[in-house]
């Protein structure tokens, strides 16, 4: 993993104030979110509270429609909360303007999506380097860092290929390289294995675990796959926009969570059979 010793991008850096005494990278308090529609307001998150320590592996899980992706969008600065605070390293993330949040996200957060978005006219290498271009890193340095990260995920041989000709698993590995290229402290992954077979899914999960264990990164994974829960330090179970925190199994016993998810799956199966 030596290839990740590259320093953070030098140009145009922005950072939120840091405190070395803070153990929590993220603190969320009293978070509520509602969307205004023509037919009225729709509330999707209700009084969410949790902490995510530095160098932890947090999993946000629950059934579809429970608010997981909305929560992740708020944590990444893409969607402001209706109420509540999101503090990163002690600083309220939404007291800075949208441009500062965007630059901070590019430099300090790596994001992996279930469906990847590529610049079709660019090669794999150039797509991976794109976050560095946007923060002012010189092209030759950006390409060198991008190649190092492609090598890290075993995709260096495809550097000059167009991303859309790659398989789903290969694209997700490239997406991991792009998420890591700016050497971020925080990596967020939204259902990164949702469209993959078990072999490629395991490969992505192994990469995330290495990022935490060997690179000392903090991981936030959104998933509905309960098989991944034993890999986590922090478990945040969501249902109907509400959250139950299970920190190392202390707040919500795992057998209760699994039983709840199994019951929900059984109900969904019944509904599908009726249709």
Structural account:
This protein has 275 residues and is an alpha/beta fold. The protein has a single domain, classed as Rossmann fold, CATH 3.40.50. Helix content is 34%, strand content 25%. It has seven helices and ten strands. It has helices at 68-75, 98-108, 124-134, 139-152, 168-180, 198-213, 254-274; strands spanning 24-37, 40-53, 57-61, 83-88, 91-92, 109-112, 186-190, 218-223, 234-239, 242-247. The strands form two sheets. Strands 6-7-8-3-9-10 form a six-stranded mixed beta sheet, with helices on both faces. A four-stranded antiparallel beta sheet has the order 2-1-4-5, with helices on one face. Strand 7, helix 6 (198-213) and strand 8 (218-223) form a beta-alpha-beta unit. Helix 3 (124-134) runs parallel beside helix 5 (168-180). The longest helix has 21 residues, at 254-274. The protein is globular and about 50 Å long. Residues 1-21 and 249-253 have low confidence and may be disordered.
